[in-house]
Amino acid sequence: MTKPDTIWKAKVLTLFPEMFPGALGLSLAGQGLKDGIWALETVDIRDFAGDKHRSVDDAPFGGGPGMVLRPDVVSAAIEAATALAKDLPLIYLTPRGRSLNQARVKELAKGPGAVLLCGRFEGLDERVVQAHAVEEVSLGDYVLSGGEVAAIAVVDACVRLLDGIIGTPESLAEESFETGLLEYPQYTRPQEWKGRTVPDVLVSGHHEKVRAWRKEQSEAITRERRPDLWARYAADNA
Ligand code: ADE
Fold first, then answer.
1. What is the pTM of this model?
2. What average pLDDT does the structure give for the chain?
3. What is the phi-psi region of residue 69: left when phi exceeds 0, alpha when psi lies from -120 to 50, beta otherwise?
């Protein structure tokens, strides 16, 4: 495998740099990090606080619960992080963002990397989002304690697509979302387990029948679980 001249870079702006590499230091992503297929850098937002208490947040104007990350502090951290990485998209992890999907993950993985801004508390002063070209990204309709776990998920999803990370790239071609459908069910040995057997077709040796069965299963599961994906698939394949 020839290595690209520039490696995929993740720069994470966070109040908790100790949370990294975390899960990204293990398994496929961890091996890729050790092999120099991608690089990870954390920037501690607190290093950009201006006062002796190193404060990064303050009460929201207009009142209400919680604290808001100060625009001057976060902006200084963004400027420092992006000074040498102007080509990296700046992603702010927030439940208010657009839902991440595999299509966006693929685009990010094809690019030079990403700067990932992790929020905490009630959020980030809106002026930071306006002042910088920020893409707001959500993992889904639920609230995490902060953006760090979401940033780890985004980086993991991108890194596994980089050349040299997955030994058998064919396995990427059939996984969920690649065909617009959820993946079919998988089985392995033993052929009978606790009275449950494997579908006959999978041990029949008929490759064409196996393919047709898997497609049927993928379609049925998608129709039942994800009407949104199913509607798009049905329209695209009409
Ligand atoms: N931060 C808190 N909740 C989040 C979510 N659902 N997605 C992305 N970032 C978040």
1. 0.95
2. 95
3. beta
